[in-house]
Amino acid sequence: MRNPIRFLLVFSAIGSGLAAAQSKLPTTPIHEVTENYFGTKVRDPYRWLENTTDAQVVAWMKAQNDFTRATLANIPGRDQLMTRIKALDNAGTVVSALQVWGGRYFYFKTEPGSDNRKLYVRDKQDAPDRLLVDTEKLTTADGKHFSIDYFQPSLDGKYVAYGVSPGGSEESILHVIESATGKVLSDTIDRAQFGQPTWLPDGSFFYTRTQKLAADAPPTAKFQKLRCYHHVLGADPDKEVAIFGYQVSPEVKVTEDDFPVLAFSPGAPKYLVGLVIHGVKRELDLYATAFKDSVSEKTAWKKVVDDNDAVITFDVHGDSIFLVSHKDASRYRVLRTSLENPNLAQAATVVPESEVVVVNIAAADDALYVQDLDGGIGRLQRLPYRGATIQPVKLAFDGAIQALVTNPTETGAWLELTSWTKSPLWYSLDSRSGKLIDTHLVTPSPVDFSQIESEEVKAKSADGTMVPLSIVHKRGMTLDGSHPTWLEGYGSYGVTLDPTFRPTQLAFLERGGVFAVAHVRGGGEYGEDWHVQGQKLTKQHTIDDMLAGAQYLIEHKFTSPAHLAGEGTSAGGITIGGAITQRPDLFGAALIRVGDSDSLRSELMTSGPANIPEFGTVKEPDGFKGLFAMDAYQHVKPDTPYPAILLTTGVNDPRVAPWQAAKMAARLQASTNSGKPILLRVDYDAGHGMGSTKTQRDEEQADEVAFLLWQLGVPDFQPGQTPVATLNEQLNKPIR
Predict the structure, then answer these.
(1) Widest Cα–Cα separation across the chain
(2) pTM strictly above 0.85
(3) For the chain, first and last CA: distance in Å?
(4) Neighbouring C-beta atoms of residue 166, cutoff 10 Å
(5) Cα-only R_g, the chain
(6) Read out DSSP for 658-683?
(7) Contact 665, 698 (CB under 8 A)
(8) For the segment 416-451, what is each residue's pLDDT rounded down to a tens digit?
(9) How far apart are CA 396 and CA 377, in angstroms?
(10) CA 20 to 30 Å from 386, out of 21, 428, 464, 536?
(11) Cα(525)–Cα(376) distance, rounded to whole angstroms?
(12) Are 563 and 588 in contact (CB under 8 A)?
């Protein structure tokens, strides 16, 4: 079982209308605040922008967004680019989040012409699918859209619990639908953003719920003091009593910032597991108890592990619990102990640490399936519960395992395979033959990547560390330093940026573009050591690794600084923010997408307390030191030639507050002397990107790619020029 909750991208100044219009942006008032952190005085000239409900801030953000939208809309070629992106995005079907319960197959599907993912079911693998939840029918009269955040079928496949939220807010309301008839039951549970419904054999389920907040509660209180409840279908959730979580059981330590979850598996029906998740921290506390019909605040729990045992995920089978731990094993090992009498000190090592990184395990009826990462390539092993040694599973091709799925009462597994140039396919693994069988849940994408290739290289970082770099481009491309190049970096939470098929990326690649990913420290590409080497006081390694990727692309003549753009999304805002403030000369443009830019203030956001384990707190000297060093906003310098930058945010973002992008945009606009635009793009019906519609994603990508092609000097996108005939010809070609 994966951890269920985890908080969790030059042209010289152009003398015509678009660049010159930058000077027409309204001035932004300065109301300076100075704070003293352990003897260091820190200036904050735009603190007032944090009050995003204030009328002046609302008006300022609207004026910024209006200016940005007008500027982007006037880029030559932008509309044709949008047409191409939309065609590529509508060419194929996307299937994700497969689950198999009661012989039924449940999954999200987005078809050509559909604007949002919908929930489907098949009564068996080769049966026709049926639509269960059509999100497009939930759109309100004023155009506000709704999206499904999660779903969980019951053990017999009779019901599905699912969470729906408006406008990308992730403010889930939990509903239940009958899978045979499509009848939505009366059960409605609000405050279920982290619902994590866990069904029981009797058709009831456990779920996690946030507290009911007072009107004057601070933003940081929203995700605090979570508790788990037991819901019987038809019952009033507001009358249910907490059975696990904050201040429920004296035996289970749950702080106000922790996330409690209850997990039941029919593969270990005599037991119940309680998880305590410390925000975004990977290491869990796990408790076990004998499963009974009645679970209450008086239930006796036995501790299995705490966060000092460095366990990041687990699964159960029979009387055993399997644990993935990085304690004394940076690339992880798999341990097994008893659920009846857990004793980690005497746990058996069933998969020792090796050169590959263990990233996930999943228990089926026949074996434990172990997902590995081998130098960026996904691998799979099968460990039978009795007798045989661990066995490698031959995959259809070298790429990434995007998902590994098992049912604890069925043999075999299901997995989604993809690569930079191969579209995702879902396979079932026959446990007897060891062969992968195409489930035909989805057909290969008709978007043709046959003229696109990928290569894996390594770039030398500032301290000599060799950093993996993935590069995707047209075959036979001449390396002359002229190509518009888009370099992405992330580097937080131990998250890996695996090979991913992105059909709409072809709109950039077919114009001679190069797309690259720097697998920077702070991610998990080489295990836990790779993660902690880009965390807190070592966060500079993350930025250095991003700069190393940029320098590699320049030195090997894929591109040049004038034609190079960097991107960072979410926590990747720290990565690209640090790169452009430390080496603005290396980039012609940058994208800061829903990015964390003002790290010193991040713990005051709604998601702030949960992120302290990854980034630190200003309440401690070392925490302040690390956060100040990674705070891009605080390192913007006056009269500096910054690259052109597009910052994006969604007003409903629960993960990175919109004021982060606002403050960064304001300071960059006041500080740059390059004459290049600093633009703030705001989506008023979106959040962090989860739950955005296909149209929203296509519009945003068209804006971003047009912005980059404009600023990186691609002729068809320059003011005063009409896109050449070859572009129009391209638009009329078949999808390929």
Answers:
(1) 75
(2) yes
(3) 38
(4) 20
(5) 25
(6) HHHHHHHHHHHHHHB-S---EEEEEE
(7) no
(8) 999 999 999 999 999 989 899 999 999 999 999 999
(9) 12
(10) 428
(11) 7
(12) yes
